[in-house]
Design a protein that fits this description.
The protein is an alpha/beta fold. It is built from five helices and 13 strands.
């Protein structure tokens, strides 16, 4: 089933399936933001969550998504999950709103030579920094782009606990500008309910 997801014909797929994307700045957004089967979200901490900002564009906290269970066939996120304060809650929420057999296609800053590490202890109300603060460029609000987690080789096994079977694919596609400087991009495909 994972191989099926990695070879998806997106243009045909979106005609009959619901897609949720966790960004408003991607090439997919540019092409499909007015399509009736496409929904996207941004994260604006200074605005109410769970509300539609414009047709098909929502303000969402991934730790408490406002969508109903089993709402989407495909969810995509690119360089997003490392910014979620409690990413395992976010992944569990993504699993909740995905239909059984649905997929979450993810890119995150990833290194196979380490295990996943929290940069911030979020177990209490106040954050405790375990490593120097790192921010990524956020087109909307830079202070919302703190990196909470560095993902490593154990990510597929950790996602199993959220209800996913996950495989990593190395992707290099110059025509689509899918590359990370001069190396491949790790794309994770997590399928809900396909536990091996």
């Amino acid at each position: 089933m994972i191989a099926t997801w990695s070879g998806i014909d997106f243009k045909g797929f979106i005609q009959t399936h619901k897609v949720y994307e966790l960004t408003t700045t991607s090439p997919i957004y540019s092409l499909y933001n007015r399509h009736p089967n496409y929904i996207c979200s941004a994260y604006f901490s200074d605005q109410s969550f769970g509300r539609e900002l414009s047709p098909g564009t929502w303000n969402e906290d991934l730790q408490r998504l406002s969508f109903a269970d089993n709402s989407f066939d495909l969810i995509t996120s690119s360089e997003t999950m490392e910014h979620v304060r409690r990413p395992w809650r976010g992944f569990s929420e993504i699993a909740r709103v995905l239909r059984p057999g649905g997929a979450h296609c993810i890119t995150v800053p990833y290194r196979g030579d380490r295990v996943t590490t929290s940069r911030v202890d979020t177990s209490a109300e106040e954050d405790v920094y375990l490593a120097p603060k790192v921010y990524h460029l956020d087109p909307h609000k830079p202070e919302d782009s703190l990196v909470y987690t560095d993902f490593g080789r154990d990510l597929p096994e950790i996602l199993r606990g959220c209800g996913f079977t996950t495989e990593r694919h190395s992707v290099w596609n110059e025509a689509s500008d899918i590359r990370d400087d001069l190396s491949t991009v790790s794309v994770f495909v997590s399928v809900k309910g396909l536990i091996r």
